[in-house]
């Protein structure tokens, strides 16, 4: 039986939640990653994914300007980087350089892949939608990459930046 609750209490029960790291090149030429919890596949043909970014985030303007981005599903070994990318701003710091994150060039877009991620998708921006305090970006997948080693994905298991590697299916 359901009982009425506050939105905050009900929302807290959505965890564990997948996370991704979106990366786009800013106008100065720096690749800027941001950790995001709001991501979903929106189409099989053509393959498309949607991400949601807050209006105040530096990455919002970066993705708009670049018109393309990489989505990386971090591995359980990337907890520290994932936290860093989600709590620091690319306005002030070169996050990839400061974290020492290994990357490799993307194939189809001007981007970089996270070498130690479970998977990376290269996306071209096809649309955006303003939704309150966030913008939803939809990207069409133009190239896909997987890690040659079997790795567990990293999930957020609750608010306040708690992460856990959940076993592969």
General description of the model:
The chain is an alpha+beta fold. The protein has a single domain (16-157), classed as Electron Transport, Fmn-binding Protein, Chain A (Pnp Oxidase, Chain A), CATH 2.30.110.10. Helix content is 17%, strand content 44%. Strands 3-2-6-9-10-5-4 form a seven-stranded antiparallel β-sheet. A three-stranded antiparallel β-sheet has the order 1-11-12, with no helix packed on it. The chain has a two-stranded antiparallel ribbon with strand order 7-8. Strand 9 and strand 10 (134-146) form a beta hairpin. The model has no long low-confidence stretch (mean pLDDT 94).
How are the elements arranged and paired?
Blueprint: H1 7-12, E1 17-18, E2 20-25, E3 31-36, E4 39-43, E5 48-54, H2 58-66, E6 68-73, H3 79-87, H4 95-99, E7 103-105, E8 112-114, E9 119-131, E10 134-146, E11 153-158, E12 162-166
List keywords for this structure.
globular, Pnp Oxidase, Chain A, three-stranded antiparallel beta sheet, alpha+beta, 169 residues, 12 strands, seven-stranded antiparallel beta sheet
CATH architecture heading:
Roll
Which descriptor suits the 3D outline? globular
Residue windows where pLDDT falls under 50 for at least 5 positions: none
Strand portion: 35-45%
The share of residues in helices is 10-25%
Summarize, please:
The protein is of the alpha+beta class and 169 residues long. The protein has helices at residues 7-12, 58-66, 79-87, 95-99, and strands spanning 17-18, 20-25, 31-36, 39-43, 48-54, 68-73, 103-105, 112-114, 119-131, 134-146, 153-158, 162-166.
